[in-house]
Batch of 2 targets.
Target 1
Amino acid sequence: MEILVSDIRARRRARADAFLERITKSQTERDFIMRLTSDPRLERLFVEAVGAAVDSAVEAKRRVLANAVADASIDPLAEDRSEWIVDALKILEVQHVRALALLSDEWERTKRDTSQPVTWGTSDVWKSLPGPIKSTLVRAGVAKPSPGTYVAVKPPRRAEGITDFGLELVELLRAEGWRSEASARGWDGSA
């Protein structure tokens, strides 16, 4: 048991080291520390992001978290966006990102489909998701719940399911290798 715990601690430490290394690729460690110690908002963002990165099994998520902190440390105007990303990724795990990717793919197909003169903006993927997944996606701000009333409008339209922020987050995760990581680990259902 002692060896197992020691191995877990070593893996978590390696995740933290990789996280810090990624941040300092875009600036010197000294510049980052100076900015971090002078900005309480950045400090909170950093602490939250490190915690989420160390706890996550998803490499792409850890990279996006590090990028968000690096962006905020270089440009204070990027702090809002970085906070949104970190706050969302703190609560999103594999099953949530998988659902988000399905919603994103569905939206891309919907945008290309011009066969309907009007649509209700519904999502078959959204309807198929379990309640706990939906509520977490909504809480993270990456999806919106089904409205009480639907209105038919010219397509494409999203009345429920993924938000613009959700689309952005999926794009960031995919840019950091989410698809290949999910496939390699069987998180996409391929294993």
Target 2
Amino acid sequence: MEEITSGIVNATNIDPDFILGFTQSAFSALGVSVNGTINLVDLDAHDETEHDASITRLDLIQGETLTVQPSMVQDLINDAPKDLDYLNTTSIGLTRARRNAESQALGSPPLPAGLASNALGEAGLILLLFGQGNFADPDSLQAPKWMVQQWFDWEVFPLGWQKSPTVLSVANDLDPIVGQIVSWQTYWEPLI
């Protein structure tokens, strides 16, 4: 758990206390002691550490849920207008609304509150890590499409990307982004 926590903190500069809580909850959900070990495949535990309506992975009802689906990444990219070279809270809100609708159309149940919150937080990480603009105005943040595509398709940080020089907090940085994504998701839901 300490290795995962320090690895995420060192790579992203996200608040260590938040990341520690995240890793502790993952270990707990998997029934692994804090001194135990896991591998990445262990994190593919449906409705524990993995959920339906992912923006990049299949629902459990569709089969294998571990592998990023390039066509789903492309759908995420395409949710932003073609004349824009970035994603923002508007496009990511559309992605969340679209994926929830697609998931339920497949026959998957709606996400329980805790997993819905996780899905929104994961979507918000796109702008937290790659967003350029004024963090005080989440709607101004722009995550370059090419960076997002590399991050998901190659599962690496994009070439030239640099972590934030300041510690990124949940309350001050991620929560406002997620709040705007929720607003846009709510806007798009009746239109899908």
